[in-house]
Each structure stands twice: as C-alpha cells, then as structure tokens.
# Entry
Amino acid sequence: MDTYIITLPPQQLPALRGWQATPAHLAYRLGPGPHLFRAGSTSPRGGLMVVDDQDFDGLGPTGPLCQEIVRECQVRGFSGAILDFENRLPPLEQIAAALDEPFARRGWTLIVPERYASAAPHARVAIPSALSGGSLQKRLEEALERFGESRVVLALEKRAEDFFLPSPTGSGQPLTEQELEGLKQRLSPSVFFSGELCARYFTYMSRESGAHFVLFDDGDTLRHKVDVARRLGIHTFLAPWAEVGPHAARIGLQRRPEQTRPRR
# Structure
C-alpha cells in the first residue's frame, strides 16, 4: 500500500480533497529566539507540519523550541513533522536529535533530510528523486542499505535544469516551466529519455556559452521514479502539490471512494 504525503499551503488544502493522500502543511518556520512561527492566521489541523529553516540564525537554546513543536503537533492533531532544513548548522542537528525520541514514543512520523539521518535514528529519511548523474535505482539501493526499508522516503521533485558542458559541479541553472517550454519551442530539440536518471533531456549549442545539456521531469518521468522505488520496496512518497498536482493520477495517487448516501 503506497503512502503519499503531499506538501501544500493550508489555503490550497481543498485541492487535495478527494485524493487518498496525507497533507503536510507548509505553514511553519524557525525564527529568532529561536521560536516556531506559523504563517498568517491559518489554523491547519491533521496531517503533518512542515518546518523550514530559512529564517533560522542558529542562536539561542533549542530545547524550548522543540517543546513548542511537540505542543503544536498535540494542539493541531498532527501525526508528525517534516524538517525541511536546507542549511547545515549544529543547532539544526540538535533539533532533529531532540525530536527523534519524543516523536517515536508518541508514534508520530518524523521526516528529515539525509544529512540529518544519523542525528535522528528513528526518523524517516527523504531521498530526493532528482539526479544529474548516476542511477536512481542505485541511489535508492544505497539508501536502503544504509537506512533500511522502513526509513526510506522518496521525495519526488519535478525539476528542470540547464547545464553547461562540461559541468564540473554537477549543478545546472534551474528553469521555470515557462523557460523550459520557451527553450523547446525555440530550439525544437530531439528529446530523449534516460532510464538511469528517469528523466528527459536534450542538448543544444549556444554561440555565447557553448554546449548545453537540459535535464527535466514531466508526469511520465515522475511515474517512472515511483515505479523504480516500488520495485525496491519503497512505498512512501513525499511530493509538493504545486509540482505534482497536474500529474496526481499518473504518479499513483488514488481517488477516495465516493461516500454513498444511505437509502431512506
């Protein structure tokens, strides 16, 4: 049985109704103090909370902050939290470690980035689906070997990047949907599918900057990534509604059964 955890702002929650998915509310951030801050006047309930670290300065004791997170989960009826930490700071590691045992004791889900997996040994570990090289299957096999089947979550990302060739860093210039479509319309390139990366790609030449390699996802590539994970025994998927919403059925989300009205 697949589990889909869908991240979205509380105001977009109605879009998820009718789908068999667990909402993860994009409504929380770490701020000065440090304290937990909730966006606007929203009062989400149920599902999971997503906590980002964009405004976190790393200063102050983390113990009271962790207590705030636990209390918020209790008050809002959340069944867990996703620590969407992009930075790597010792206090963030302390937060992940401090939440690990209390969440596990309550039966709550805690999902952390791979870099924080060792700090929170009971937590689920989010493995990004987007690669610029190598093999998605091998990447997931390595994650399964390190963390075990019960901990690995595939974090689906609908990515598009433009790489200069050669690309020594393995990082490209992110493209918006409009920029990608503009390139495709202007160049009319031959588009290929990489079975190793489970992504589409094309190449082109620029007079100003030389050779380019464009790697991108669509609904079909996301479905391929889900299929690879399933074959390996991974059945929990984390995805942003903003990226996967138009492809929900294609990647495997199921509609909730219609509730039939009782006959009088």
Notes: The helical segments are 63-76, 90-106, 136-147, 177-187, 219-231, 241-244, 248-251. The domain at 3-158+218-251 is CATH 3.20.20.80 (TIM Barrel). Residues 90-106 form the longest helix (17 residues). The chain has a mean pLDDT of 94.
